[in-house]
Amino acid sequence: MIALTHAGYLAAGWLGTAALVGGYALVVLRRGRRLSRHVPTEERRWS
Amino acid sequence: MTATTPAGSPSGPPPTAPATGAASAAGASASAGGDAGHRPPAGAGPAHTGSAATRAVGWLALASLALLVLYGLVISPADREMDDVVRLMYVHVPSATYLYLGCFITTLASGMWLWKRTPGWDALAETGAEVALVFAFVTLLTGSLWGRPTWGTYWTWDARLTTTAVLTALLVGYLALRRLDVDPDARSTRAAVVGLLLVPNVVIVNRSVEWWRSLHQSATLARIDPTIEGDMLVALMVGFLALGLVFTWLTIHRFRVAWLEQQADRVDLDAALAARRAEAADGDLDSDPHEKVTPA
Questions:
Q1: Contact yes or no for B36/B267 (Cβ under 8 A)
Q2: Residue B257 has what pLDDT?
Q3: CB-CB under 8 Å, B48 with A33
Q4: What CA–CA distance (Å, rounded) separates A28 from A33?
Q5: What is the rounded average pLDDT for all residues in chain B?
Q6: Dihedral sign, Cα of residue B99, residue B50, residue A27, residue B63
Q7: Is B279 helix (H, G, I), strand (E, B) or coil?
Q8: Which residues in chain A have their CB less than 8 angstroms from residue B81's CB?
């Protein structure tokens, strides 16, 4: 493993970014799944 | 949420062509029309917001994120002055750029909503703001973590930082406005007026390092002689590519969610109206015989 200076800041920045973006992506996917069940098929034109 | 279809006209016009390639795919796939006054049969249609296009973009995004980790954390050398903390810049700079892009989408779509009044533009305006807010948080997080070892503080009321915080607050306010429980059409109009303020704020954020004395460095790439080169430049470009694909993927999915929210509101409204009409019809049937009998 390579040695990095400021490893704590780097880990917090990169992992924090992954958590923020990944978490938001999961929320969006879940909302999409939940809403898709309540909307007529013809309004879901992506497939 | 955002039911922007005018009252009494549940089958609103289709969303017109949105501003970006990402949203264009979403807009093309989500045109309105048709009677939505019934619940879908179980298992019919895709019960999600994914499609072949989003799957392709998603896999490309994951691959480019892996490349970003490789370039950003392994291949790119440490900076002479910043040491390894420069590696935060490969996320920070692209995030700020896509924050600006999200704001631009919202302002454009808000203007189009005020002009055309088609629900697709309203959905796109909300989409741009929400995705922009995620990138605003990433920008602030990585910027603060970069600032501590470089400037000696996580936060200072510097012009660039302060204007970015104001822009983030404006995005939060915009999204809060969209959740007010008022007439959907009026709500969308008020939100659109706030949405128009986003791009002027982006200009202020971007120019703040030129207009005021600032700790924050000025442009690194957007100049004739860029101050970054070699593997560091490649890592930054990979950052733009990876986060650009993530932005695109999020924008398409979020646009479809906003579209579904509009349709779900419409379905609920249609169901409520049908129930009301049925109640009224039952009331008429019950009262008619009685009225005819009484005079006799």
A1: yes
A2: 94
A3: yes
A4: 9
A5: 81
A6: negative
A7: helix
A8: none
